[in-house]
Write a structure and sequence with these properties.
The complex is a heterodimer of chains A (331) and B (149).
Chain A (H helix, E strand, L loop, with lengths): L9 E6 L5 H7 L4 H8 L1 E4 L8 H6 L5 E7 L2 E3 H13 E7 L1 H5 L11 H11 L14 E4 L2 E4 L3 E6 L1 H4 L4 E3 L6 H13 L15 H4 L29 H4 L15 H4 L17 H12 L10 H9 L4 H5 L16
Chain B lengths: L1 H5 L7 E6 L3 H10 L8 E6 L7 H9 L4 E6 L10 H18 L7 E5 L5 H18 L14
Parallel strand pairs in B: 1-2, 1-3, 3-4
Classes of the chains: A alpha/beta (331), B alpha/beta (149).
Chain lengths: 331, 149
C-alpha cells in the first residue's frame, strides 16, 4: 500500500449559471483525467463528489491551490459561493464561456427579472399558474421562514463578481487547453495574471476553410445556416452565412467549422477587442453587398440588412454581459 | 461626461464624429460664416466616418452621451472612395441592435455634410439636439446586485 500523499495541490470545481457542459469537458479529458487526478486532490466538485458548502467553509483561507469555476453569476447563491471559493483559493480560473464572457445565459441581459419571471411562470404555453405565483426569496410556512436565492436582473461574468486570475475560454473548453492549463498551473509556468489561456489569434487565421477563402469576401445575400446546404470547401462568409470567426479567438480546434456550422463566438474576442459584438457587426456590415454598394438603392440596402433577424442575439451571442453596455437598459 | 450626468447637469450631451475631409470642413465653414447653433455637442474629428467603429458609439453612450451624430462625405464623395458606404451599413445595423439594448435608434444619426455645406451642418446639429432634448438623458446605470445587502 502506498503512503497517502499529503502534499498534493488541492483543486475545486464549481458551477454557476451553466448547462453542465463544462463539467462534461472535464470528463472528456478521457485517460488524461488520470494524469490530473494523480497530480491533484479534488476537494470540492458538487456534480461528482459529495462535499458540502460547510466543508469548504471549514478550509483554511487560500488552502485550495486553484478553483475552476464555470457558469455565469445569476443568483445571490452563486455569488456567495464564488466569493467563498475566492477566499479559500490561491488561484481562480474562469472556466468556459459563461464564466469568461457571460455565455448563452448572458443573453438574458436583453431581459430583466420581471420579464423572465412573467414568461416562465405565467405566459409560457406549457404553464398553468392561475394565481400568478412567482418565486419569493422568503416565504412564511407554519414551521418558519423558508428562503430561496435572489434571482438577479443582470447576469454577471465571473470577473464582475470576484477577482479572476485566468480564463479558459470555450463552450466547453477543449480537453487540450484544459490539460495544458492544469499542467501549467502545477508547474507554476503561468502567463501574467488576467491572461486567457488560449492563442491570441482570430479563428479565421486557423480556419480549415481559409484555403478556400476568396481574396475578397463579398456577401451578396445573407443566408441562415438552415437555408442552404453548406459546401465543405467554401468559406461561410463567401456563402452568405454569418460566421463570427473574424472577431473570435482561435484555439477551439475549429469544432463547429469541421461539423459544418459557422462560428458563434464562444471563445470570446482576441486581447485587444473591447466589445466583441460590435466588432462582429462592423466586419459583417462591411461585407454585405460590398460589390454593389455604389448602385444599391436605400430600399435594397435596408432589405439586405433586414435579413439579419436578430442582430443583438447573433452578434452578442456569447458576450453580452462582457460588452460595453452589459445589458438592455433597465426602465 | 459621466460626471456631468451624475451632477445633474441637464443639458443634452451629443458626440458628433466628423470626417476630416468633408464634415469637419463643413463645420469649419459654418464657424467662419458665424452661423449660430445650439451648443450642446462636442466634435471629434476622425479621418473617415467609417473610422467610427460601432464600439466607439457604444462607449460614447456608456460614458454618458445622450446622442451620437456621425457626419461624413456624401455618397460617391468619400476621400477614401467608399468608406461612407460601409458606415451607412454599419449604422443601419447598429440602430436595430441599439433597439434591442433599449436605446431609441433616434439617438444615433448618420448624415452627409460636404465641406461647403456649413448651413446643412447647422441644420443637422439643431435638428439632432431637438430630438435628443425630447428623449432626455440616457440612464444606463446598472444597479449593483449583491448576495448580502
Amino acid at each position: 500500500m502506498s503512503k497517502p500523499e499529503v502534499s498534493k495541490p488541492k483543486v475545486a470545481f464549481y458551477w454557476c449559471a451553466s448547462c453542465g457542459g463544462c463539467e462534461e469537458a472535464v470528463v472528456d479529458l478521457a485517460e488524461d483525467i488520470l494524469t490530473v487526478a494523480d497530480a491533484v486532490d479534488i476537494v470540492f466538485w458538487p456534480v461528482a463528489l459529495d462535499f458540502k458548502k460547510k466543508d469548504v467553509e471549514a478550509m483554511e483561507d487560500g488552502s485550495i491551490a486553484v478553483s475552476f469555476i464555470n457558469g455565469a453569476v445569476r443568483t445571490s447563491e452563486q455569488e456567495e459561493m464564488v466569493n467563498l471559493l475566492r477566499k479559500k483559493s490561491g488561484l481562480v480560473v474562469a472556466f468556459g464561456s459563461c464564466a469568461h464572457i457571460g455565455g448563452i445565459p448572458g443573453l438574458a441581459n436583453f431581459n430583466d427579472r420581471e420579464s423572465i419571471f412573467k414568461w416562465v411562470y405565467e405566459d409560457a404555453p406549457t404553464v398553468t399558474n392561475p394565481d400568478k405565483i412567482h418565486p419569493q426569496t422568503e416565504t412564511e410556512v407554519p414551521d418558519g421562514t423558508i428562503t430561496l436565492p435572489k434571482f438577479y436582473d443582470t447576469v454577471k461574468t465571473l470577473d464582475q463578481a470576484i477577482d479572476v486570475d485566468y480564463y479558459l475560454p470555450g463552450c466547453a473548453p477543449p480537453p487540450d487547453l484544459i490539460l495544458a492549463a492544469v499542467m501549467a498551473i502545477l508547474k507554476g509556468e503561468l502567463p501574467e495574471k488576467g491572461a486567457v489561456l488560449a492563442p491570441d489569434k482570430s479563428l479565421c487565421d486557423t480556419c480549415p476553410l481559409a484555403e478556400y477563402k476568396p481574396e475578397k469576401i463579398a456577401m451578396k445575400d445573407i443566408k441562415r445556416p438552415h437555408e442552404i446546404i453548406h459546401d465543405p470547401k467554401q468559406c461561410f462568409l463567401a456563402e452568405g452565412i454569418i460566421c463570427l470567426g473574424p472577431a473570435t479567438r482561435s484555439g477551439c480546434g475549429e469544432r463547429c467549422i469541421n461539423a459544418g456550422m459557422p462560428c458563434r463566438g464562444c471563445f470570446g474576442p482576441t486581447k485587444t477587442v473591447k466589445d466583441m459584438g460590435t466588432k462582429v457587426l462592423t466586419s459583417i456590415a462591411s461585407l454585405i453587398g460590398i460589390e454593389t454598394e455604389e448602385e444599391m438603392s436605400e430600399e435594397e440596402l435596408q432589405k439586405a440588412l433586414d435579413k439579419i433577424v436578430d442582430p443583438g442575439g447573433l452578434f452578442f451571442m456569447y458576450s453580452l454581459p462582457s460588452s460595453v453596455l452589459r445589458r438592455r437598459r433597465l426602465s | 461626461m459621466a460626471n456631468d450626468a451624475k451632477t445633474g447637469n441637464d443639458n443634452p450631451k451629443i458626440v458628433a464624429f466628423c470626417c476630416n475631409w468633408c464634415s469637419y470642413a463643413g463645420a469649419d465653414a459654418a464657424g467662419t460664416a458665424r452661423m449660430q447653433t445650439k451648443p450642446h455637442f462636442r466634435i471629434i474629428r476622425t479621418m473617415c466616418s467609417s473610422r467610427v467603429e460601432p464600439d466607439l458609439i457604444m462607449e460614447a453612450f456608456h460614458k454618458g452621451a445622450w446622442g451620437v451624430l456621425i457626419l461624413g462625405c456624401h455618397p460617391g464623395d468619400c476621400h477614401y472612395k467608399n468608406g461612407n458606404y460601409k458606415t451607412d451599413r454599419r449604422i443601419r445595423l447598429l440602430k436595430r441592435t441599439l433597439e434591442q439594448f433599449g436605446i431609441e435608434p433616434e439617438r444615433l444619426r448618420l448624415d452627409w455634410v460636404s465641406a461647403s455645406e456649413g448651413a446643412k451642418f447647422v441644420r443637422v446639429i439643431d435638428e439632432t439636439i431637438d430630438v435628443i432634448e425630447k428623449l432626455g438623458p440616457l440612464n444606463l446605470e446598472i444597479p449593483e446586485e449583491v448576495a448580502h445587502e
